[in-house]
Amino acid sequence: MSAPLAKLPKWVDYGLIPLLNLTAAFLVSGLVVLLIGENPLEAVYWLVQGSLGYGEGVGFTLYYATNFIFTGLAVAVAAHAGLFNIGGEGQAYFAGLGVALACLALDHYVPWWITFPFALMGAALFGAAWAAIPAYLQAKRGSHIVITTIMFNFIASAVMAYLLVEIFKQPGSMQPESRTFLEGGRLPFMHDALGWFGIKVAKSPLNLSFVVGLVASALVWMMVWRTRLGYAIRTICTNPDAAVYAGIKVPRIIIITMMISGGLAGLMALNEVMGVQHRLLLDYVTGYGFVGIAVALMGRNHPVGILLASLLFGMLYQGGAELAFEMPKITRDMIIAIQGLVILFAGAMEHMFRPALIRLFAALGSKDVMSEA
After folding, report:
1. Roughly what angle, to the nearest 10 degrees, separates helices 17-35 and 288-298?
2. Across the strands, what pairs with 371?
3. Cα 339 from Cα 174, distance rounded (Å)
């Protein structure tokens, strides 16, 4: 019989292990860069320089990070209930419909700050609605949430393709997209918003949805750790039998949790549809929902960790583009491979260093290492 698992100090579990996983991913990536005859240190320099070394690069990094904040929070909320919401891609995609409907209906008549609350509600409600069906099937019919949410990603893609081709496409246009929103349907870019206060920053796609992401992170922390609903969610994950014994209505909490998760994923549509593209178009999600899984894993399903992991992946997206430009031997496909290595070590191999650290702390006689019953 194997030895019982041990509980490591929080600074190890939430700080050291993710750092070791990230270091391992970059070391392996460095070996790949060496194999093609390039200098790994130079590659790291351009990666950091391209993402954080100048104002526009920082703006692009935070713009990408905004998407990962929403999808990472969506995965984390579901994970606290023991659910694996792998459908953030479809939920964010379908939520674009809610944002677009608000913007198309109001942009002729009102300024953006009146349209924005309706677009925000549309994103959250449409994302929650798309998550509610798999949630019901899990809670009431026993269908596995992973299977149903994956299926609903493809269904969302098909539904949106039909709507963009048959309903929203402008007459005489060959592009499967809605009309471009007027000023009343566009979120201000951050460089414009800061300019209202006399603060000058470089132009970039970063917009006010980044602030929404920060507020959502704070609200998720409050909900999970400071409310009765959050306690019920965490109890279901820790011990479903105890939750039932305590009178918690497990199916109801599962549905509520998944709807909150879908609503958070749906908020990503604010950044892309109302904030940057200013229209509803095909495939604007482009994998952000799946990367959110790695963001949540690396961030240990905690909003602070998710913010930091989102920043990392934002750096990989923006810095990777600069790296491919400055070092042509490192192609865009190799950048995707590096991102994949980070996901691999942060996800599938997340516990690679844990057994060794448990033995180390046990050998040192740490009082923080306690065997779980």
Report:
1. 130
2. 6
3. 34
Average pLDDT, stretch 347-363? 76
Cα–Cα nearest to 297, from 117, 111, 34, 85: 85
What's the CA gap between 318 and 303, in Å, rounded? 22
Least confident of 24-33, 80-89, 180-189: 24-33
d(CA 145, CA 278): 33
pLDDT at residue 292 tops 70: yes
Are 127 and 266 contacting, i.e. CB atoms less than 8 angstroms apart?
yes
| Residue 207 in tokens | 């917009």
Inter-residue contact 126 to 98 (CB < 8 Å):
yes
Alpha helices in the chain (DSSP H): 10-11, 17-35, 40-52, 55-79, 88-106, 112-141, 145-166, 190-195, 209-226, 228-238, 240-245, 250-266, 268-269, 288-298, 303-326, 332-346, 354-363
What are the residue ranges spanned by the domains of the chain?
67-310
Query: Strand 6-7 to strand 370-371: parallel, antiparallel, or no bridges (unpaired)?
Result: antiparallel
Give the gyration radius of the chain's Cα atoms: 22
pLDDT, tens digit, for every residue of 12-45? 877 788 888 888 888 888 888 888 888 889 988 9
151, pLDDT greater than 90: yes
Least confident of 16-30, 135-149, 271-285: 16-30
Tell whether the model's pLDDT for residue 298 goes beyond 90.
Answer: no
Q: How many residues does the chain have?
A: 373
Cα separation, 306 vs 315, in Å, equals: 14
> In the structure, what pLDDT confidence band is assigned to residue 349 with cuts at 50, 70 and 90?
low
Q: Exposure of 368 by Cβ count < 10 A (0-12 exposed, 13-18 middle, 19+ buried)?
A: middle
Q: Which residue from 214, 219, 321 is spatially nearest to 260, judged by alpha carbons?
A: 219
Run of H or E including 371: strand 370-371
- HSE-up of 71 (CA within 13 Å, CB side)? 33
Name the nearest CA neighbour of 179 among 281, 316, 322.
281
